[in-house]
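[scheduler] slot 2 assigned
[scheduler] job type: sequence-to-structure, two independent chains
[scheduler] chain ordering preserved from manifest
[runner] begin chain α
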Amino acid sequence: MLLLKSRQPALVGQAIAHIFRGSALRVVRTSIVLTLCLAVLWIVIAALGRAATVKSLSAHFRSQLQPDCRLKNFRLRSLFGLNVLRVAAVLAASVGGLAALMLGSAVSPRAEAAPGLSFLIVLSVVLLVWLAWSVVNWFLSLASVFAVVAGENTFGSLTSAVNLCRDRTGSVFAAGTWFGLAHVVAFFVATSAVAFPLGFAAVLPPAVVMGGVLIVTLAYFAVADFLYMGRLAAYVAIIALPMPQSVECNSPESMAPQMLQATASSVDPEELILSDIPLAGEAKIGGNQA
């Protein structure tokens, strides 16, 4: 307590090291148990939330759904399985981040310190791990839509997600890109707006400043959830609605038989034309010559 009250960074660091030296094992055990409990709770709550939202979005497109995409009875265990995979992806990303730190420390030992190279390696590895986790998490999130809309099991949802990305790459990529850019813009606007109440920290009471920061944060969370639901609705629409006809179906070559059929149907086969009356035609021509 004496070292902690000294407010000296070196002494406070020694006090914290002394505390964890005696309680490190219990801290690790507590962290593991708490992480597992939170993971199980998130798996259940996320599955129920995804089922409720996707069912509501599917009901919006119910009248326009394809016959093979009608809303079916889904099984929550499919969503549970996908969420378990998402938790495993987070765990793998965490292990990758720790591996990046260990690799950076191995590259820059104390005898031959190279902080610049170590930072570059750690940053590169962490960036690659984050990109890999983002792709896997997005893919599993897309597969959960099939688990609700089509009633697929866990691996069937993954297969359907792969087929969707292969068949309608442009639509899926456009929906993810535009909503992702909107989310990035909302994040930068929120970070800029947070600086406004913080600028009055020396003038206004701390409660007012924290209230302003809380309001901006809640507004950002609301916008982020709105954009996430919009992207989810776009995916449901891409899955449920029929694919538009290609341009080749409206080409002149493809429209020619239809035009000939329409022309033939508009002609009365019983109506006589001039070529069907040869005598009258010859008589008329002879009279003109005379």
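[runner] end chain α
[runner] begin chain β
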Amino acid sequence: MQHFTHLRDLNPTSEPQRAAALITRARALKAGAKSRALSDKIMGLLFMDPSLRTRTSFDAAAIKLGGQSISLDVGQGVWGLEYLDNVAMNGDKPEHVREAAGVLSQYVDVLGVRAFSRGEGLSSDEADRVIGAFRRHASVPVISLESAREHPCQGLADLMTAQEHFGALSEVNITLSWAPHIKSLPRAVPNSLLLTAAALGCKIRVAHPLGYALAPEITAEAQKYAAVSGAKIDFYTHQMPAIKGAQIVYAKSWGQTDALVAPPNDPSLANWMLEPEHFNEAHPDAKFLHCLPVRRGVEVSHAVLDGPRSSVLSEAGNRLWVQMAALEWLMQANNLTAEDVIDLQSLT
């Protein structure tokens, strides 16, 4: 069974053109190409956490691909779900993923799952147990709507947006910069930006305060992809700005690596909030990206978000097209599509 819950499902080391082919296909769909990859199919969308863009864009993707979607909210009309094996279920989770995934697999043809970090630490996020449980127990393809470790469709949309502005991704210079927040946030979005940019050959800087390094497993995986794609990755731990020459500036908050360091709302870290003057040494046409939602005046200034550099709305719009391309590939990879669906290999 082929799933798409992590970037590695695209095999960036052995099939390095697949991620690029998905973006190529997404741009074709955006330009008006048609697909019936979900014709007479039903997509189930299971949300353990809130969503605006992901829910709406996947609903729209299903309709545009000729299918339908059913959205379910865990804990709000759907039983709380236990995902750990061999535990006594004597708490507030009366149903196990084993049964839930098995039952849903009889109703839908593809299953999307959204399950953020449970706040149990980096090792738990790296294990990605919730999405892993659905991969093990579902008998239909599973696609991530964001998990504890990654948000792969967001990463593809981010790089599609960069390509639209600057062309060949091997030439694109990206800064991923940490941002302040009122609370400690998961790392799925910055993880996916780094992994996807590395797989697509970009030049990448990662800037963050002391104690906010990304997990070593993520940085090692990114370096592995870079070795194949030719990407250049620099990791920084210093004060802002770190965006000299950057064409894409991506500001995103994420939680501490070391609980003893300053929390993300510490006043001493307020200078990491992106302001227009931070772009003084960036590329003249530099664009600002963020996955949304964004806390204005906390993570990023109003002036940046409302200014000419901001591409956050078109970036969010691109979620629809990359998800359509990903669903098309996923259904084809599992022999669930009509014969006339485009062969992505032809785009490589």
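[runner] end chain β
[qc] chain β: Residues 7-150+317-343 form a domain with the Rossmann fold fold (CATH 3.40.50.1370).
[scheduler] slot 2 released
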